[in-house]
Amino acid sequence: MGRRRGVMSEGLKEELAKELGFYDVVQKEGWGGIRAKDAGNMVKRAIELAEQQLANKQ
């Protein structure tokens, strides 16, 4: 099975990393250097933002 194409843009991921305080790790080590907890928090925040956008459209 191949790798799935990313759903989040690089810009959004960078913005979330800055907001959550681990962008310095991304700059030094790349996305593979972040902790699983940080990745989970990033996904959680992205879901919150998407839900807010959907709620505003309705």
From TrEMBL:
Domain of life: Bacteria
GO biological process: DNA topological change
The UniProt record lists the keyword Cell membrane: no
One Pfam family it belongs to: SASP
Molecular-function annotations in GO: double-stranded DNA binding
Keywords on record: DNA-binding
Family of this protein: Belongs to the alpha/beta-type SASP family.
Protein name per the record: Small, acid-soluble spore protein, alpha/beta type
Native species: Bacillus yapensis
